């Protein structure tokens, strides 16, 4: 079954370019296009795409609000959102990740990265280098808690090792790097990450990194 993709961008020329790239792949199918967030919501309901390639800055409804409505609480549809941005430190990316996006990609990324990102997101994984997540959160630290707030109750459901893993995810380490740091196998790390996501009710490691910052477990700028 081909991965069904919806293109959302207010620039028709960009949508055409993305369509040409994606339709050259046998396992990808562009099922529709939208020029703003409101159109995107209609198209998601009508077409049931697997992945929505979402621009952030658009008229009428931006990509953040559209993402929130597509992936927010109570949504049981299959659509995952991959956010597109012109700037790698776009403040709206942080809000999009909080809203439920599975990651983001720069608009000038090579075609092979775009294709791979869609495949990764469709599989249920997060397409976002954790180090980029951290740079974003560090840059916009003024919008985050100071670290002096009470630790949320949900954090106490984690074991000590799971807390360690969560901190390392937020620091930008890959599974392989976490495994080396803790002297365990990558499989063990994946298991711990899975437990963290389940216990905290999070979608993926991107949201886990955001949670670590917002809960005060990791402070912006800390090593």
Helix content: 40-55%
Global structural class: alpha/beta
Give the tally of β-strands.
Answer: 5
* CATH homology superfamily name of the largest domain: Response regulator
Q: What is the CATH first-level class name of the largest domain?
A: Alpha Beta
H/I helix tally = 10
Order of helices and strands: EHEHEHEHEHHHHHH
Low-confidence stretches: none
Domain HTH luxR-type: 151-216
Keywords: DNA-binding, Phosphoprotein, Transcription, Transcription regulation
GO molecular function: DNA binding
InterPro entries: CheY-like_superfamily, NreC/VraR/RcsB-like_REC, Sig_transdc_resp-reg_C-effctor, Sig_transdc_resp-reg_receiver, Tscrpt_reg_LuxR_C, WalR-like
